[in-house]
Specification:
The complex is a heterodimer of chains A (259) and B (238).
Chain A (H helix, E strand, L loop, with lengths): L1 H13 L3 H9 L3 H32 L3 H15 L2 H12 L6 H6 L8 H25 L3 H9 L4 H29 L3 H6 L10 H11 L1 H39 L6
Helix pairs in contact in A: 2-12, 3-7, 3-9, 4-7, 5-7, 7-9, 8-9, 9-12, 11-12
Chain B lengths: L2 E9 L2 E9 L4 E4 L6 H9 L6 E6 L2 E5 L4 E2 L2 H4 L1 E4 L11 H5 L8 H14 L15 H13 L5 E5 L7 H18 L3 E4 L3 H7 L2 E6 L2 E6 L1 H6 L4 H6 L6
Parallel strand pairs in B: 3-9, 3-10, 7-8, 8-9
Antiparallel strand pairs in B: 1-2, 1-4, 4-5, 5-6, 10-11
Classes of the chains: A mainly alpha (259), B alpha/beta (238).
């Protein structure tokens, strides 16, 4: 099993020479696609965090049928094939879609735009953040939030000053997972946003296009994308541990801060 | 200050139906596990809304179902130390204690917290993280933090149970002196009859969500109303 998991990655790394990589990075598709990927994935990550954090808090603190229904809705994009997500987005925001009339009246056209790239990324990546954030919030001892309130904090104050800091490692790893998923988003983007170089073409789509004409360029772009993912993975696995170690050590070694 | 509460609350399988009152003399809350002692404390600070009843602190009503009064926890000024002390692990001791009184400027808050820790003999702990403290130290820091808001009353959930015998005796004596000298009303949950004796507390026994007996240690020892009360005070020389 391990071999099966590792072999393609090893092959990817071994298959490229530095010259290939250089040629790939100079490929005309690479620059615009890298920029578009960075821009859209950061925007979608920001939206996911801004809208997903309150929802995760609500999920962690409610009970009953309503919560289970919302949890199902949140998990749905994980099990839906990306191509299905793409079609679904078209059915919602496309010209013939559910909101097509209203959007057209407002003069807004979403499919095959940068907005569509961001929407596709949000839909496929949000579940990873929300799940991880809800689990992190659930792990916060409710006694601590109650104590914060007896010490004069409002509900929101207790959340901001105690709930968020304690859940932070879980929120960060959720954000990293969601970001990684958004970076790699392919299927839904292809169907909903298209593969327009310089407009909606992100790195995964650039690999797809490059593969038709220049395998080496595709390989180089793939390596760059793999590199970013590996960095994210390390951040995900190692940083929280370092963080915790630092937090517990600093109490005994760091000098007291003067007010 | 006199305090009185009369609460009816249904929470999952637990049905709480209790009447308690007290003054500056400490009150001990004893009872088997799952009887509703912790739920009662959490209700008094405002975590749960009772179905009916009232909570009176001196002249102030913090909750009254009939007149619709229900102060949020941050306005009740009730000092609460939960089981396990409830220290914020992400803040140093000084900032834990300074956490209360968000109305004061930061420097002033910290100065006040420093004084409070000094009173407790804990000034050497200010820069430490809660996870590095001993049980007795954590309890003192939690107490100092609760006292920062100038509480009308203190609620302590098993304040001594996690301590070793030596720390337990020291803190028990400290707590007794402190409460007596400040005339600060306190409701203390405990599983140890020696705590009740040391605090010279009036006792309420909670069993299955109701008060099964209340009174002085002597009265409860002489005429226990239930097998639990008899077992709890068995061997206590009151």
């Amino acid at each position: 099993m391990l071999g099966l998991l590792a072999l393609p990655v090893v092959a990817l790394v071994l298959g490229a020479t530095p010259a290939d990589l250089e040629a790939g990075l100079a490929h005309p598709l690479f620059g615009p696609a890298l920029w578009r990927t960075a821009q859209t994935s950061l925007v979608s990550l920001g939206e996911v965090i801004a809208l997903g954090t309150p929802l995760a808090w609500w999920l962690a603190n409610s009970d009953g049928r309503g919560r289970r229904l919302v949890e199902l809705l949140v998990d749905l994009p994980i099990v839906l094939p990306p191509a299905v997500v793409g079609i679904a987005l078209l059915q919602a925001f496309g010209r013939q879609g559910l909101l097509g009339g209203q959007l057209e009246a407002m003069g807004v056209q979403i499919p095959f735009s940068v907005t569509a790239v961001v929407l596709a990324q949000i839909m496929v990546s949000a579940p990873f953040y929300i799940q991880s954030a809800a689990a992190a919030f659930r792990g916060v001892n409710p006694d601590l939030l109650l104590v914060a309130r007896t010490l004069g904090q409002s509900r929101l104050g207790a959340l901001l000053r105690v709930g968020l800091p304690l859940a932070l490692p879980g929120l960060l790893s959720g954000a990293a997972l969601a970001w990684a998923r958004a970076l790699g988003e392919f299927g839904a983007t292809l169907l909903f946003a298209g593969n327009l170089p310089g407009a909606t073409q992100t790195l995964p789509l650039a690999i797809y296009t490059a593969l038709e004409s220049d395998v080496r360029a595709a390989l180089a772009i793939a390596l760059v994308l793999a590199g970013i993912s590996v960095v994210l993975l390390f951040g995900l696995r190692i940083l929280p541990g370092v963080w915790r170690a630092r937090a517990s050590l600093s109490g005994t070694h760091e000098p007291e801060q003067q007010p | 200050m006199n305090w009185a509460l009369s609460l009816r609350l249904r929470l999952g399988a637990l049905e709480l139906d209790v009447d308690l009152e007290g003054d500056a003399r400490p009150v001990a809350l004893v009872g088997p596990n799952g009887a509703g002692k912790t739920t009662l404390l959490r209700t008094i600070v405002g975590a749960h809304r009772p179905d009916s009843g009232r909570i009176q602190m001196g002249d102030l009503s913090v909750f009254d179902a009939r007149s619709g009064i229900d102060l949020p926890p941050e306005q009740r000024r009730i000092g609460y130390v939960p089981q396990g002390y409830g220290l914020f692990p992400h803040l140093r001791v000084l900032d834990n204690v300074a956490f209360g009184r968000p109305d004061l400027p930061r420097a002033e808050r910290r100065e006040m917290a420093r004084e409070m820790l000094k009173d407790m003999g804990c000034e050497h702990l200010t820069a430490r993280r809660p996870t590095t403290l001993s049980g007795g130290e954590m309890q003192r820091v939690a107490l100092a933090r609760a006292l920062m808001v100038g509480p009308r009353m203190l609620l302590l959930d098993e304040p001594l149970s996690a301590l070793d015998a030596v720390a337990r005796r020291a803190l028990r004596a400290y707590l007794t002196d402190y409460l007596r000298s400040r005339k600060l009303p306190a409701l203390v949950v405990t599983h140890d009859a020696r705590d009740v004796v040391a605090l010279d507390a009036r006792v309420y026994v909670v069993e299955d969500g109701r008060i099964s007996q209340s009174g002085t240690i002597e009265a409860l020892t002489e005429a226990p109303a239930t097998p639990f009360v008899a077992a709890f005070f068995h061997g206590t020389v009151a």
